[in-house]
């Protein structure tokens, strides 16, 4: 192991491993420090996302949806299966295989790009030095011209419900429940809480979601959020807003949760409880006292718009810094920093970073919500069209939800696109591309969309902004 590198990346998650690979592609002698040990007691790359986040949760979401379809909707297509049973162990094994294949793939990419994987933890010290503590052996001081901090985030814990990973679990524990709980509580109606709650609801749990704030998905366009809540409630998810958890008590193999809502003090008993109230930057042990890197009041590393910290040559990306805690945002920041180090001028367009909730239906968005634009005082126009008017959605039995656009009244520029419905995670990319190129609503109106396709609802929603929609009846809004 060398003691000097061109670039050292601390953290091997989506942002870190991508930054390391891109730096190596640009000709830098690069090392990536990662300490994670996976379920098989092996060192693993990929961070939270690949190991205990995005990937395993999507595997369970897809498996649980197929189980739900087999039980509930395939008969509508003339497919009769008889009794359908659940093999949860096989479902978990499939998920774990996908995770191991992907994380192993990153290790192969490191080899192919000649990135040195240092298995252990790293701490930034002054003078662009890094103290590397290997999983086995003595600590060593490393030096680099450039250092990228990419340590990621961890679940937030709350005092009323201490996590034991048995009865009370966080998002990691929720991926490995050994059996389907009869009654499942979820604290937090955000992205993680809704996704994990929907997995176990499909598999047979009675799910109650407790959310402290009074508004469902407050950062999402509220027309979309209200439609989503309506559909989730129809699926059996009991979502209670304004429910602030105050305490919990273990009784045998159950947990009694105390909370307050508009009706006063309440109590519910669950077989399992998932705490999904957000994530926080993982900075423990990352910075020595003399490292010189500044943190803000919420413990995020302070950076400029190209992810430079206060220390020249030291960068921070992903969940450690401002902005949404999204793997794809971290990835693009990793690429940007690598290219900035190489002297290239590049910039992430933070106004066009999509967000997705992988429930069924999916919820996705990019740009500004109608509420944000309205609050700004700028003149705007909107158009929304339901999937119920789409032939492909009807053929698939996926008619819930809608596509919505928000556009500037004066310039016609697209300010935001919002979707709740089938394949929203894929459809939203049309809005991302349009906004990246500065498209107007008229640009989308003039494009030809294949028929029949779900994308036609995107076209219709664009047309609806100017009252040109063909397949839905529109009433003009009063000025």
Describe this entry's structure for a reader.
It is found in: Cytoplasm. Its main location: cytoplasm. Its cofactor is FAD. It catalyses: N(6)-[(R)-dihydrolipoyl]-L-lysyl-[protein] + NAD(+) = N(6)-[(R)-lipoyl]-L-lysyl-[protein] + NADH + H(+). By secondary structure, the protein is α/β, with parallel strands linked by helices. It has three domains: 221 residues, FAD/NAD(P)-binding domain, CATH 3.50.50; 110 residues, FAD/NAD(P)-binding domain; 114 residues, FAD/NAD-linked reductase, C-terminal dimerisation domain (Enolase-like, domain 1). It has twelve helices and 21 strands. The chain has a five-stranded mixed beta barrel. It has a five-stranded parallel β-sheet with strand order 7-14-8-9-10, with helices on one face. The protein has a five-stranded antiparallel β-sheet with strand order 17-18-21-20-19, sandwiched between helices. The longest helix is centred in the N-terminal third of the chain and has 26 residues. It is globular, with a radius of gyration of 24 Å.
Quick overview of this protein structure:
The chain is an alpha/beta fold. The protein has 3 domains: 4-155 and 280-348, FAD/NAD(P)-binding domain (3-Layer(bba) Sandwich), CATH 3.50.50.60; 168-277, FAD/NAD(P)-binding domain (3-Layer(bba) Sandwich); 352-465, FAD/NAD-linked reductase, C-terminal dimerisation domain (Enolase-like, domain 1).
**What name does CATH use for the topology of the largest domain?**
FAD/NAD(P)-binding domain
Strand order of the largest sheet: 1-2-3-4-5
Estimated helix fraction: 25-40%
Point out poorly predicted stretches: none
**Number of DSSP strand runs:** 21
Number of domains: 3
CATH superfamily of the largest domain: FAD/NAD(P)-binding domain
Oligomer: single chain
Bin the strand percentage: 25-35%
By secondary-structure content and strand pairing, the structural class works out as alpha/beta
> Termini distance?
69 Å
């Amino acid at each position: 192991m060398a003691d000097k590198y061109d670039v050292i990346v601390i953290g091997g998650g989506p942002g870190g491993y991508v930054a390391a690979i891109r730096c190596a592609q640009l000709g830098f002698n690069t090392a990536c420090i990662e300490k994670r040990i996976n379920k098989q007691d092996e060192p693993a790359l990929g961070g939270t996302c690949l190991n205990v986040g995005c990937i395993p949760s999507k595997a369970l979401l897809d498996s649980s949806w197929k189980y739900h379809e087999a039980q509930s909707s395939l008969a509508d297509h003339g497919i009769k299966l008889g009794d359908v049973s659940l093999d949860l162990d096989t479902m978990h094994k499939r998920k774990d295989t996908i995770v191991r294949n992907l994380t192993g793939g990153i290790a192969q990419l490191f080899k192919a790009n000649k990135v040195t994987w240092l298995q252990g933890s790293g701490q930034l010290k002054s003078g662009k030095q890094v103290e590397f503590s290997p999983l086995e052996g003595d600590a060593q001081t490393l030096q680099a011209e450039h250092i990228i901090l990419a340590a990621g985030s961890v679940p937030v814990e709350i005092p009323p419900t201490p996590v034991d990973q048995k009865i009370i679990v966080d998002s990691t524990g929720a991926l490995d429940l050994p059996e389907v709980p009869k009654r499942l509580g979820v604290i937090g109606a955000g992205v993680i809480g809704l996704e994990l709650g929907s997995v176990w609801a499909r598999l047979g749990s009675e799910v109650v979601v407790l959310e402290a704030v009074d508004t469902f998905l407050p950062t999402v366009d509220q027309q979309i959020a209200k439609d989503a809540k309506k559909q989730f409630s129809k699926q059996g998810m009991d979502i209670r807003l304004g429910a602030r958890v105050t305490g919990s008590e273990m009784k045998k193999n159950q947990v009694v949760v105390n909370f307050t809502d508009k009706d006063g003090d309440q109590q519910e008993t669950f077989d399992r409880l998932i705490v999904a109230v957000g994530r926080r930057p993982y900075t423990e042990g990352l910075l020595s006292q003399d490292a010189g890197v500044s943190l803000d009041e919420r413990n995020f590393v302070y950076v400029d718009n190209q992810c430079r910290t206060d220390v020249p040559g030291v960068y921070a990306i992903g969940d450690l810094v401002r902005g949404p805690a999204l793997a794809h945002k971290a990835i693009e920041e990793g690429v940007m920093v690598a290219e900035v180090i190489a002297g290239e001028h590049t910039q992430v367009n933070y106004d066009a970073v999509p967000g997705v909730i992988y429930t069924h239906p999916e919820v996705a968005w990019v740009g500004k919500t109608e509420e944000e634009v309205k609050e700004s005082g700028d003149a705007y126009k909107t158009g929304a069209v339901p999937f119920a008017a789409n032939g492909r959605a009807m053929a698939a039995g996926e008619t819930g939800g809608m596509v919505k656009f928000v556009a500037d009244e004066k310039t016609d520029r697209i300010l935001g696109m919002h979707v709740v419905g089938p394949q929203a995670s894929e459809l939203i990319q049309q809005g991302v591309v349009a906004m990246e190129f500065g498209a107007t609503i008229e640009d989308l109106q003039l494009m030809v969309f294949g028929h029949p396709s779900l994308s036609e609802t995107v076209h219709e929603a664009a047309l609806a902004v100017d009252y040109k929609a063909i397949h839905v009846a529109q009433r003009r809004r009063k000025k």
